[in-house]
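Consider the following assembly input.
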Amino acid sequence: DAGVIQSPRHEVTEMGQEVTLRCKPISGHDYLFWYRQTMMRGLELLIYFNNNVPIDDSGMPEDRFSAKMPNASFSTLKIQPSEPRDSAVYFCASSSAGNTIYFGEGSWLTVV
Amino acid sequence: GIQVEQSPPDLILQEGANSTLRCNFSDSVNNLQWFHQNPWGQLINLFYIPSGTKQNGRLSATTVATERYSLLYISSSQTTDSGVYFCGKDYKLSFGAGTTVTVRA
């Protein structure tokens, strides 16, 4: 299996622009997670899905952030409008039945 | 409150040395995992270990759920072991702040 695939790997955007991050989980996995990593806050869970249904979005920082999972093989995390403080590495991860969690390589976002 | 605490925060090792990293958690655990984040930022799962002991090459881990801690052992450390080691708890993976390990040749 190719593992969890994220795109883009790197993005630099201007403040106020919309950012869409994409994730393809490992085939057959029923859990999908979005995390954000910053120096100040470390690794924090933003939202997770089970069988494509959002279960817990309490980590989503504010209404500017939204996440969808239209099918078992695709998820998006959208930031609109983006702000400099959103600069971080965004990780997508997936697992089967909540067991071993596999991370993608991350999307490095810089908002200037 | 803090759910997961890791110690030590930093560790410098000479190549070939052994070390132990600790993860304490504040309440019961259903799922405990150890990860290594390498210098390129990749997060690699080392162990899924809600209880008991597992070994994988030079690495091993033990979780004592009743006492709310987990240990990661690195034996005969190599420079490629450098990076940050995280433990994560439960499905939501509440992460500790990590232990930064530097192995010197």
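Chain B touches chain A at residues 30-31, 33, 35, 41-45, 48, 86, 88, 91-95, 97-98 (CB under 8 Å). Ask yourself how this observation constrains the way the partners meet.
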